[in-house]
Amino acid sequence: MQFVTDVFWLLFFHMIGDFVFQNTFMYERKYDSKFSMFSHCILWTGAIAFGFFFLWDVSLNVYQLSFLFTGHYLMDYFRHPFVKEDKKATIFDFDFFFHIMQLVIVYRWAL
Fold this sequence. Notes:
mainly alpha; globular
């Protein structure tokens, strides 16, 4: 049961990093501007790192942070050509699943 609760908290921090910290300006420009994509991924990675520190008093190492940042960057970058109105839900389901798997891997790695 503890694992399920922990994954819930990881989802919470994922949502904070992916939606709350990503303003409209960043969302609209992240595929046209490497700086906007970089900023979005840094904020997301920071939200996850804060979650690990806040919940479990764990500071993620540079490899874990790089894994989170790079995975998020690549997923967001490569999904962009596939985001069409008729397939948007399927792409975002895959995106969400990928990010959750990423979080679970780091959770197992860090704790």
